[in-house]
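Ticket opened by: R.M.
Priority: normal
Category: complex prediction / small molecule

The reporter submitted a protein together with 3-isopropylmalic acid and asked that the result be attached to this ticket for the collaborator who will pick it up next week. Submitted input follows.
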Amino acid sequence: MLLNITALPGDGIGPEVTDEGIKVLDTVAELFGHQLQLNKKNIGGAALLASNDPLPADTLQACLASSAVLLGAVGGPAFDKYPSHLRPEAGLLRLRRELGVFANLRPATCFPGLEECSPLRAEVVRGTDLVIVRELLGGIYFGEPRETKGATGSRIATDTMRYAEFEIERIAHIAFRMAQARKRKLMSVDKANVLDCSRLWRSVVNSVARHYPDVALTHMYVDSAAMALVARPSEFDVVLTENMFGDILSDQAGAVVGSLGILGSASIGGKVGLYEPIHGSAPDIGGKNVANPIGAIASVAMMLRHAFNLEAEAQCVEAAVKKVLETGARSRDIARSGESSLSTEQMGTRIKGALLKVAENTPMVPG
Ligand code: IPM
Ligand code: MG
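Result attached by the on-call engineer:
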């Protein structure tokens, strides 16, 4: 199969973790007889510096012409001075919108052996295996008006949270189908005691639920969901929520399972899927070869699964990550004090090595 992919390394640790993701893609292509056609483009701060636009036209065109996009991270304090429409984050939001990717899947799994990395007690996090289905193109991220008015001292800033029924409906279907493929449990998270958007959210999710009588639907307010996520994370399964709540809860889920650095994500439902680690650009460690590439590599696995329907390949990548963590290999974010840690590149190479071994025992690989 032709794997026609645009890579957008971006800022901070984005480029170094993306390189390790590409290393794994290369290995998969070689092992399974696929042809990797990779096109690297600028986004975010890197694009701003190169061409004064956080999402240059040629980047967008390349993304739209490919079958999947692999993104590193965008942003950094150097870009705080730019007006809001030129910020690196604006480039990413525009990309999501142009691609039409309204469904952001963010799994968070506590790998055996990583329980000790969580700030929570091991017995609390053990077995945590959840997925947040985050609405990605609506809510307060995109609602209009958004503006700051007035003179310094009396400025007023406005953001608008806004949802249309169809936006809630389409993401709810994705979440119900995800629940059907898992434990048939779905929790929808909102703030329906305060927000109109959330009341509409709850009403539409309840209507969609009629199509899925086999799924047990519950609702929870976001504040109590945040509490439950640290108190009883292993009871969560599929969580459906709107854009900003999903942004916040997914970072929290990262800490719960040991490190945000190990989480990948898939943004789907549009013309071309976007695959990116959940962590940000971490500018303080950018370029130091200490970042954890597992989030990027997990995103590659999700890309193989969702963009190319290559389930065996995706599972091999996931098995390789699991194996490497089982051997005790640790990047800096998941090493405990006194434990030695691997660089970004070394971790990627270990996972590549494990992938070669896993694939040896996979009948799918052409001999
Ligand atoms: C994320 C990030 C982005 C978001 C930023 C960089 C725009 O935090 O993917 O979670 O808020 O969606
Ligand atoms: Mg975030």
